[in-house]
Amino acid sequence: MSLQGHRALITGAGQGIGRACAEVFAERGADLILLDRNAEALDAAAKVARQTGSDVTSLTVDLTDLESLRKELETACQCLSVDILVNNAGFDRPGTSSKLDMAGFEAVLEIHLSAPLCLIKFFLPAMRARKWGRIINVSSIYGLIGGKGEVAYSTAKAGLLGLTKSIAREAGTDGVTVNAVLPGLTRTPAIEHGMADKFKEAIIRETPLGRIAEAREIANVIAFLASEEASYITAAAIPVSGGWGI
After folding, report:
1. Most-buried pick from 125, 145, 182, 231 (CB within 10 A)?
2. What is the model's pTM?
């Protein structure tokens, strides 16, 4: 599943699934553009990726500031050919419908839906012109089953599935595939430090494989979808959840 000769843009590349994607893609020969709002974490991820010999461009950017995002893309990426886009960045504002404020809800939609659409609008035309491209959106099992106290996150991740399928219909005739992966509970800093053990343990009990995923296990599936071996897969929503949510 070589990615030699391709350049991938990965959002949220400073930690978790995004950083694992950067490492796996670099190991498979891809050049990279890495985006994250945490400059320190981004620099660390870029340093590791460069050790493989990949050409790596890193951009510290807040994806919720769409105007700044467009300017960064126009400045840094106009002359770089990007044929793989991984929309991974995200954050959560937990809350039930009665407790979640609209500002928090809209912020979650912006990072999970508006930012991916902005990136797709920027890079898709060139992919279609070249008759080859890969777009992989990182959704969640919560996008299928919902989550108690996760109104914003579940809604955004479900919306990302709709975006995936719509763009797949739009771009398929030009050789661009568009897919989504749906991770389950994954060992990332947000989960390790932000989720109480009792909630993690409850999810693991409902997971047939009986454990938490490693970020690299999700990244391996994303890399597969970016490869030639996945050339006839599009509009798919692939659970990578150890069976949780079946």
Report:
1. 182
2. 0.96
